[in-house]
């Protein structure tokens, strides 16, 4: 009868050992998953920072283009006022006006392009922030799983220790 109890305890001990091994491998896998998620999070944060910097640069470019446009517009007005007196100045004004119009068109085109780049950067920023949120949520779930698995390991280790004590007691009783 004691041999049967001992066999049952050994079987239970083997089962608990297998459970601990399984829990250890799950914990290792979870830790690897957490490390991967941390790397993904870091990459997403870097991408968000890069997009923020790019957005700031594009905004600065847009402001500079607006200032250049204002400057060119003011210059064009000054030339228009001064050219009414002299025919030669009028011809120069027409050339400057054509050049100014081309520059204004170019600046307007640059402004449009800058606005498009800002919108694209903002879209990328929103997407990156969304990915960051998804990764953070996934990390929280992984951490919760890890905590649950660690507590299961502690319970299994306690059961294993109890089983070892019982085996030792049974072996001492058999002697």
UniProtKB/TrEMBL annotation:
<dbReference type="Pfam" id="PF00261">
    <property type="entry name" value="Tropomyosin"/>
</dbReference>
<feature type="compositionally biased region" description="Basic and acidic residues">
    <location>
        <begin position="76"/>
        <end position="91"/>
    </location>
</feature>
<keyword id="KW-0677">Repeat</keyword>
<protein>
    <submittedName>
        <fullName>Uncharacterized protein</fullName>
    </submittedName>
</protein>
<keyword id="KW-0175">Coiled coil</keyword>
<dbReference type="InterPro" id="IPR000533">
    <property type="entry name" value="Tropomyosin"/>
</dbReference>
<comment type="function">
    <text>Tropomyosin, in association with the troponin complex, plays a central role in the calcium dependent regulation of muscle contraction.</text>
</comment>
<feature type="region of interest" description="Disordered">
    <location>
        <begin position="76"/>
        <end position="101"/>
    </location>
</feature>
<comment type="similarity">
    <text>Belongs to the tropomyosin family.</text>
</comment>
């Amino acid at each position: 009868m004691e041999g049967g109890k001992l066999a049952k305890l050994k079987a239970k001990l083997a089962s608990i050992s297998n459970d601990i091994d399984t829990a250890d491998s799950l914990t290792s896998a979870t830790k690897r998953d957490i490390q991967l998620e941390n790397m993904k999070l870091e990459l997403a944060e870097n991408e968000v920072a890069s997009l923020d910097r790019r957005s700031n640069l594009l905004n600065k470019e847009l402001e500079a283009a607006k200032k250049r446009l204002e400057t060119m517009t003011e210059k064009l007005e000054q030339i228009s006022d001064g050219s009414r007196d002299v025919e030669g100045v009028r011809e120069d004004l027409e050339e400057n006006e054509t050049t100014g119009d081309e520059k204004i068109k170019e600046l307007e085109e640059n402004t449009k392009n800058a606005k498009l780049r800002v919108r694209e950067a903002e879209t990328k920023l929103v997407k990156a922030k969304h990915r960051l949120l998804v990764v953070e949520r996934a990390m929280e779930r992984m951490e919760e799983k890890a905590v649950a698995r660690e507590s299961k390991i502690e319970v299994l280790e306690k059961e294993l220790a109890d089983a070892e004590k019982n085996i030792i007691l049974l072996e001492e009783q058999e002697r």
